[in-house]
Please model this.
Amino acid sequence: MHNHRHSLECILPEHMLEQIATKGSNAQKQMAMDNISVVYQLRAERAMRASLADLFAPTMPRAADGGKERIVYDVKRGTSLPGTAVRREGDPASADAAVNEAYDGSGVTYDLYKEVYGRNSINNNAMRLDSSVHYRTGYDNAFWDGKQMVYGDGDENLPAEDRLFNRFTIAIDIIGHELTHGVTQFEAKLVYSQQPGALNEHMSDVFGSLVKQYQSRQTAAEADWIIGAGLFTPNVNGVGIRTMKAPGSAYDDPVLGKDPQPAHMKEYVSTPSDNGGVHINSGIPNHAFYRAAMEIGGYAWEKAGMIWYVTLRDKLGENSNFQQCADFTHQTAGELFGSGSLEQQAVKNGWAGVGIAIGGETPEPKGCLEATLRFLGAA
Amino acid sequence: MDVERIKFERTGGFAGIRLAADFDVSDLPDDLSQTLRELLNALDFPELPARLTNSESVPDSFTYVITVEAGKWHHTVITGDAPENENMQELLELLNRLARKKIKKH
Ligand SMILES: [Zn+2]
Model:
């Protein structure tokens, strides 16, 4: 299922493009120039968006009491966000399961960030948590739109025997995942493409999974480490969307194909789809986190989660790659628990288990290079 | 433009699962091919820019690639969920449904 179609849409490292542009044939130069302009265009767009986000930041709705305030809206299968407010902070439960799941899930997510990491909501400034449910019809998705969470109902519009997805509020880790995209937007601002994008996805899976573990008070050894358990209907041969314990084994289904996630750098997937495989290659750091958390033991949100949270908040930047994430988490573990501590050792071992050595060289995205060389007839 | 063939691909999303299909418009039931033609006309599809909305910065949003072919002519449009464009929304929902049906048959 995963898209191995190599094409020149993949964004090449600029040094390589520049080399081709200066030394290549005319056709090669043109190709490189086209790609370079795309790279620069994307960068300009990102810079513009980042400054827009900063502009909007002060106007984010704030909780009335400066703490936890949730509002769940019903979009009634339409597209106009946020929709009609149907449950506000402190209101009794609704008759609508999706409304209650969005309410409860965003509450547990708020609590984890507040109680464990001392963070007051998404922006650490009491931002109100807005969620909209029943978005469009047959919408197999959930997303963070920059200001709020949005959830579809899955395949509610299809006959039961054709349904693959349940409603997207059904798994609390999806809610934690979406809210963490908000946290990343205010902290590391990881661009949503290639390795920084896969790290953005990784952070959302880590804290989504920790929200679930925190809610059930599960230790690392007790947790299932599955992302989106319960999202698939019984028509799908799979346990969930991703697994941090064994990336690549979450599903293997005649209709949906096989879980494409790698668990090691040697299986890194270069693809132009999915913003450069952000939901695919996140399997690598996800598995590193799992290994570190298992070696540390106990509740994963306490130590491993703290190391990752501080790294996301204070160290990662918008273009950080896997190697830098490994180095920063290792450094953070040393600062929090002592140089050479068991915790720091566990972080080092976790990354080693996925083929990333602390302080090592950043691996090249080799698939892109191979695709280009093939295109140019050089290989 | 007399549409003969449509290629459709949806990538990204929380699940990151690709959905793709290729249709001969003549293979579709009459009412569906009629709706499809009407939507493409209402959208003035041949005149749409190659990139309609930029969804890459919205985490977990879908990206759709739609290619319409008529004889030797073809046009590809990349778009996000396009909530501001009702005809595009309808087209995306229709193509999603068709792609799901087509996959199921395999
Ligand atoms: Zn995500």
Chain A has two domains: 4-186, 194-378. Chain A touches chain B through 49 residues (CB under 8 Å). Residues 227 and 270 of chain A are 23 Å apart (CA to CA).
